[in-house]
Design goal:
The chain has one domain: Aminopeptidase (3-Layer(aba) Sandwich). Helix content is 31%, strand content 37%. It contains four helices and seven strands, in the order βααβββαβαββ. The chain has a seven-stranded mixed beta sheet, sandwiched between helices.
């Protein structure tokens, strides 16, 4: 079973190489993660056997009835091992605990594995944001799950 725990500010440097590897020029900066934590958003981390960060995810709640999955990222060498699923379930569980019925997210239109993960958890595509990811100008599929 994958243990999901609270992301702490001192974890931020460990997120940056994962961001660089997975998202390249569209990666989040340390300042962006600091801002997420400073704004009280719900961020979780999964650690590997060595204590390092294997994956992380975040949820921003928009009262009274909406939340956004800000990100879910898993190191390439441990992908498809259940970490993304554990993180997503934890984020959805937090939305449920807060009584939030609508959870949305954006995912690159060319990221089929992530879209399949979200669809397995009840998300459906509801629209496309043209050129959302910059500088690649990649479109984002907006997905929604309603309880």
């Amino acid at each position: 079973m994958t243990a999901v725990e609270r992301l702490r500010w001192w974890d931020i440097p460990a997120l940056l190489p994962i961001e660089e590897d997975l998202f390249g020029p569209e990666k989040w900066s340390a300042g962006m993660f600091w801002n997420e934590l400073a704004n009280g958003h719900y961020y979780r981390v999964v650690r590997g056997p060595d204590g390092g960060v294997d994956g992380y995810g975040g949820l921003a709640v928009v009262p009274p009835d909406e939340a956004w999955v800000q990100n879910i990222a898993v190191r390439r060498d441990v992908q498809r091992g259940g970490i993304g699923t554990a993180l997503l379930r934890d984020l959805l569980g937090e939305a449920a605990r807060r009584g939030i019925p609508r959870v949305l997210l954006e995912v690159a239109v060319d990221n089929a594995p992530a879209q399949k993960l979200y669809a397995r958890h009840g998300f459906e595509g509801i629209g496309v944001r043209k050129g959302y990811y910059q500088p690649s100008n990649t479109d984002a599929l907006v997905m929604l799950r309603e309880d």
